[in-house]
């Protein structure tokens, strides 16, 4: 019962956030999903309804650098890797969508790592 209430609250927060955040081709939305073992990130153009780029801690490139994907160190590393790949696509600014998760822990580490590596969020 408790887990169900938490899931409902998460979905409510995400819905509330998504009312205000819209990604375009020039400034896409950087959407984050967190599981207990991994992080998943997508760059989304909401106007066209397309995913521009996606990555996660399950990717082969990432697994070569780190074996674990569910901790703060992995989130920082993913932010470093993502910032480089997003910049190579010609995008230097994105709108950060935390997906209803609290801006704390892995979500915060990912966002700060992206900012530290030159992506404006």
Q: Could you please describe the fold and organization of this structure?
A:
This protein is an alpha+beta fold. The protein contains four helices and four strands. It has a four-stranded mixed beta sheet with strand order 3-2-1-4, covered by helices on one side. Strand 1 and strand 2 form a beta hairpin. It is globular, with a radius of gyration of 14 Å.
Characteristic key phrases:
alpha+beta; 42% helix; 121 residues
Brief description of this entry?
This protein has 121 residues and is α+β, with helices and mostly antiparallel strands. It has 4 helices and 4 strands, in the order H-E-E-E-H-H-E-H.
> How far is it from the N-terminal to the C-terminal residue, by CA?
36 Å
User: What number is the mean pLDDT?
Assistant: 91
The number of distinct helices, counting runs of at least 4 residues, comes to 4
Provide the spatial order of strands within the biggest beta sheet. Answer: 3-2-1-4
Number of strands: 4
Class from secondary-structure proportions: alpha+beta
Output the radius of gyration.
Answer: 14 Å
**How would a textbook summarize the main sheet?**
4 strands, mixed
Proportion in helices: 40-55%
Strand composition percent: 15-25%
Which H/E pattern describes the elements?
HEEEHHEH
| Overall morphology | globular
Point out poorly predicted stretches: none
């Amino acid at each position: 019962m408790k887990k169900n209430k938490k899931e409902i609250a998460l979905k409510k927060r995400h819905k509330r956030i998504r009312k205000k955040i819209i990604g375009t081709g020039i400034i896409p939305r950087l959407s984050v999903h967190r599981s207990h073992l991994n992080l998943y990130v997508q760059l989304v153009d909401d106007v066209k309804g397309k995913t521009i780029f996606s990555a996660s801690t399950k990717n082969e490139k990432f697994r070569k650098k780190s074996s674990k994907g569910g901790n703060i160190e992995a989130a920082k590393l993913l932010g470093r890797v993502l910032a480089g790949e997003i910049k190579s696509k010609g995008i230097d600014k994105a709108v950060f969508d935390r997906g209803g998760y609290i801006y704390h822990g892995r979500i915060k580490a990912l966002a700060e790592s992206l900012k530290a590596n030159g992506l404006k969020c």
